[in-house]
Predict the structure.
Amino acid sequence: MLGIYIYLGVLLIIFLAFYVSGRKNYKEFIEEYKADFKFTVFAPMALSMIDKLKIIERFSSQITGVNQKVIQVYDYRRGPGFTKMHIAELISISFVCLLFSALFGAADGGFEMIVFGLVLAILLPILLNKQLDDKIKKRKEDIIIELPEFVSKVILLANAGSNIEKAIVRTVSQRKDANTHPLYRELKEVAAGINNNGNFAEIMEQFNKRCGVQEVSVLTSTILLNYKRGSELIISLRHLSRELWEKRKTVAKIRGEQASTKLVFPMVIIFIVVLVIIGYPAMSMM
């Protein structure tokens, strides 16, 4: 029992030591990223721990992979900040598991809760990192779903007499959710580069790298190979548009199947609950 109190005391001392030093230093930093990260209550403690223990520098090889995933999910221009907040969230979740398991262990005098907390402190960050892969997959699917519609609008504007650069800029400017949709967020960078008279080929290559989607790569190659050929570009984009619409149908079909699969588990739970409600009175009467 004494060991549990010592363990709890050590955790509280660690929390207070890092939280007090980080509360003022990271207030503005946390506010900047608060919208994208939900678990920010313990963020001052975690951020202070990251800097004072030099966690990013010491585990740079492991964090590089996480950083690449974070950049794909969030804004690449603020990649280091998002990565730091993501690591802070992982540390916060682990620390909360340890702290509350120690509190419950001290309350009932058992070490089982402490062991359970240690297991959760390891598993939850792994699951949270797994969510990054799911978010990356969703981002790619969102781009594939929206891409054929974007290409169709560009074709219409090109047929009306606009060149490809003006068609892209106008299509992006007409989109209301350009700041939030993953495809149009990257296309805004393209439009800004065109408006600043940047090299079109370089702008499109950077757009392709930021998206990291095969379909975008095909679109970029098609545009760069034909954007000075006028009618040939429109013909190529029409062929590509048909293929992209088929890809969109496939993604939509897969998402529909996944949605129906996710409903199975709640339905099984409801079925079990109904069985208990109906069966318990009958069993009690026997």
